[in-house]
Structure formats: structure tokens, C-alpha cells
Amino acid sequence: MVSKTALITGVTGQDGAYLAAYLLEKGYTVHGTMRRSSAPNHYRLDRLGLTPQVGGAFHLHYADLTDAMSLMRLIAALKPDEIYNLAAQSDVAVSFSVAAYTHQANGLGAVHLLEAVRHLGMASHVRYYQASTSELYGDGPVWPQNEETPFRPCSPYGVAKLTAYWSTVNYRHGYQMHASNGILFNHESPLRGPNFVTRKVTIAVAEIATGQRECLMIGNLNAKRDWGHAKDSVDGIWHITQHKEPGDYVLATGETHSVREFIERAFACIGADIQWQGEGVHEQGIDRKTGKVRVQVDPQFFRPTEVPLLCGDPSKVRRELGWQHRISFEQLVTEMVESDIAQLKAQLTAQLTS
Ligand code: NAP
Ligand code: F7E
């Protein structure tokens, strides 16, 4: 067991919640930041059984990436050994609507944290992890993407994350900080936000399986992503932060699948065989057995600019840190569908008995 203190920004998010559980298991004292919201936003922590208790190892604090002093105050008071900057406006599609805010939170937010560490005189002993992303590669023509592949971000989200990426590199070189980037490819789980395509699909499949809805409305069926499991990702994040030397690492599975394949696999979990008919916005996914239309394309889910293909090359992280994804694409989809069906059935039962 280790006796270190970690500060996780964005602990209420998918990765924040899994990372908190992972570090607590290792014996860390974990402090997480949360935002004030008008309704409770800690359901993921609840699902993992993470409740702050007086005298316990898990603590929650209010802070916001756009409020530099809130971060400075926390770092000064907690003196963490490790800072994991996971907080972000993480929805690429939404970043086109709230572009300036996305820059403030995702780009400047990282600068606020790095500056706080420097000004507090902690640069020589704090380890800093930045949640960088495969969105940095954008619509570039080269794949599989590795640490040397040029960045060509094509969304406000991606451009904002570029600021955070290079700031992390610059603080490493300029102030000898142990500051690292994890360039993470898409990673999912039953705790994934419901607007991301994987969870949107698995929720729809669960609702169709339980007779709550007829059809899934979807955007670009042909986009391809390197989808891993968030539990594997947080293990990789920790290994990056523990490495003797700081650095930049791609965390990916090395496999890529289209949105279309994800949908087929998710429907297969409930015994439905999806057949595709039509083209472009008129394409439909039909259940071969029943003839029912289960998937329709809706252009409102298209983006102004799209990242067509992501497939990461995790050779460096395998070679230097011995890390690799363990949970397969098939296991991931099955776990997500089964979790959504179980949750929905529990809700329906609760409604019937109340
Ligand atoms: P997520 O589920 O959307 O969680 C984001 C977290 O950031 C939430 O706790 C959110 O709080 C918090 N947050 C948002 N804006 C904030 C602000 N202005 N100040 C403070 N906190 C703020 O994202 P995730 O999937 O866990 O991803 C974690 C990090 O990895 C993000 O930085 C994301 O951009 C990056 N990333 C994710 C993936 C992926 O596939 N999941 C891949 C590459 C990189 P609320 O709960 O209140 O919303
Ligand atoms: O989209 C397409 C969409 O929103 C994946 C974030 O965690 O990973 C995530 O960003 C693909 C895109 O994730 C729908 O156009 C089709 O090509 O699940 P997504 P994302 O944009 O890849 C990266 C690595 C991050 O860093 C981000 O924080 O699926 N797609 N139809 C759709 N996407 C959504 N959301 N909804 C649809 O109906």
C-alpha cells in the first residue's frame, strides 16, 4: 500500500470515478474536485460506492477549471503528490456550440493548474498528468496514430486540448516538472455519459429490448474509433504518472471499429440481427427477424467537421511501461448493454412497486 495524496479534477466524470476507486484501492488519500450543479452530479461515485466520510481517505471539494484561484487554493492546502487533470468539457459535438468556454476549461484550465504548481514552488516534486486525447489528430491522413503523428485537430474541443498538451510539454521542459500527457483514444464503460455514441446506442438497445422505444436515431455511421474500456485506461494513466521519467504516451487498443459495427454488435446482444438498407441519410437498420426499423440516420447528429478514423498505435506504452488494454471490444459492448438493461429493469420495477 502507498501513502500518497492525489488530487483528481473531474472526479464526478467517467474516468475520475474509476481513477478514484483505483487509487483508493492502492492506499492513496484521494481528493476530487466537483462543480456546483443544480441537481446532484455524483451518481458515478455512488455507483462505485465512493462516499466521502469524515476521517476517510476520499474527499470532495468544489472547484472549477475556469476559476484559477479555486485550483490554487486547493493545491496549496492539500499539497498533493500527484495531480490528475481529468476535468473538461469533454463533448466534441457540444464544443462547436460552446467554443470559447471549451477553450477556457480545456485549454486555459490546464494552464491554471500548471501555473498554480509553479507559483506554489511545487514544480520539482508534484507529478502532473494531463488528459490529452486522440482528437488532437483530427482529420489527419495518417493512421495508426502514434506519439510522432502530426496533430491536426478539427473541433474547438481538439484545439483547446492542444493548448493543454503543449503547455504540459513546456512546463516539463521549462520548469523540470514531472508533467505527462496520456493521449487517450476513446474509452467507454457503463459509466460513460449518455450523449456519447456508445452509451447512446446501448441505452437505446436496452430500451428497445424492454419495449420502451422503437428506434435509435444516429449520425455518421461510418466514423471509426479505437474503443477501449475506461477501467483499462485508468490503469494506464497511473502507470504513466508513476514512470521515473515524464513523457507523452498513446493509450489505445490498436483496433478500430465503425459506429455501424458497434450498433450491430450491441443489437446482437439482444438477439437482433441488423441488416442495412438504403444510402446516406436514407440508410436504415432493420431487424431481420421482425422487419422492424431499429436504426435511422438523423443529420442533426452530423458535425461541422468530423474525425473520420482513429486507430492508436500503443507500441511505446507497451514497450516502456508494459501496459496494454485487456478488455476486448466484444466484452465492452456486452457489459454496456447488460448494464443498461439491468438498470432499466430496476427502474421499471421500482416504478411498478411505488
Ligand atoms: P466526463 O465523463 O465528461 O467527465 C468530465 C469531468 O470534468 C466531470 O467531472 C465534469 O463535471 C468535469 N468538468 C467539466 N467542466 C468542468 C469545469 N469547468 N471545471 C471543473 N470540472 C469540470 O469525461 P471523461 O470521459 O471522464 O474524460 C476524462 C478526461 O479525459 C477529459 O478531460 C476528457 O476530455 C479526456 N478524454 C476522454 C476520453 C474518453 O474517451 N473518455 C478520451 C480522451 C481524453 P460534471 O460531472 O459536473 O459535468
Ligand atoms: O463520437 C459519431 C461521431 O461523441 C464518436 C470524447 O470522450 O472521444 C470522445 O469524443 C463518433 C463520432 O465521441 C452519433 O460523429 C455518430 O465520429 O462518442 P462520440 P468522440 O467525438 O470521438 C475522444 C477521444 C475525446 O477525447 C472526447 O472527450 O461517433 N456519431 N452518430 C455520433 N456521436 C454522438 N455523440 N452521437 C451520435 O448520435
| Bound compounds | NADP nicotinamide-adenine-dinucleotide phosphate, ligand F7E
Largest sheet, spatial ordering of strands: 3-2-1-4-5-6-11
Strand runs, count: 15
Average pLDDT level: 97
> In percent, how helical is the residue content?
25-40%
* DSSP summary: helix tally: 11
Q: Quick one: overall form?
A: globular
Question: What do you see in this structure?
Answer:
α1 (14-25) packs across α8 (230-242), α5 (99-119) packs parallel to α6 and α7 crosses α11 (329-353). This protein has helices spanning 14-25, 43-47, 68-78, 92-95, 99-119, 156-175, 197-209, 230-242, 259-268, 315-321, 329-353; strands at residues 5-9, 29-34, 58-62, 82-85, 127-133, 178-184, 187-188, 216-218, 224-225, 228-229, 248-251, 257-258, 274-277, 284-287, 293-297. Strands 3-2-1-4-5-6-11 form a seven-stranded parallel beta sheet, with helices on both faces. The chain has 354 residues and is α/β, with parallel strands linked by helices. It contains eleven helices and 15 strands. The protein starts with a strand and ends with a helix. NADP nicotinamide-adenine-dinucleotide phosphate (NAP) is lined by residues 9-10, 12-16, 33, 35, 37, 41, 64-66, 86-90, 105, 131, 133, 184, 186-187, 193. NADP nicotinamide-adenine-dinucleotide phosphate is lined by residues 9-10, 12-16, 33, 35, 37, 41, 64-66, 86-90, 105, 131, 133, 184, 186-187, 193.
